[in-house]
Specification:
98 residues, alpha+beta, three-stranded antiparallel β-sheet, flat, binds zinc ion
């Protein structure tokens, strides 16, 4: 019994119901969702989820949208440009011709 509930965290509230696989999948999402996230504005780990995709920082009081269950990472302009170059087939061909 104790081993079956290992790693379930907040999903232990369902007890013996709903099956092992679905509960472990939900546990992975909920543990990520409930931990403190880093604020993209003030960089403090004080961001909490308000609703689906809506997050609020307790430190700077900013309310913003992000991913449904996690804040995720905002790419810098340099990273965005590198990603665009990597995904563009025309730029790759130009590199190979040179
Ligand atoms: Zn903040």
């Amino acid at each position: 019994m104790a081993d079956a509930q290992k790693g379930l965290g907040p999903v232990k509230r369902f007890g013996t119901r709903y099956g092992r696989t679905t509960k472990h999948k939900l546990a992975k999402i909920e543990i990520e969702m409930k931990k403190d996230h880093k604020c993209p504005y003030c960089a403090k780990p004080k961001v909490h989820r308000v609703s689906y995709g809506i997050w609020k920082c307790d430190k700077c009081k900013n309310i913003f949208t992000a991913r449904a269950y996690t804040v995720g990472q905002k790419l810098s302009l340099i990273d965005q440009a590198a990603q665009m170059v990597a995904e563009s087939p025309r730029l790759k061909e130009a590199d190979e011709e040179e």
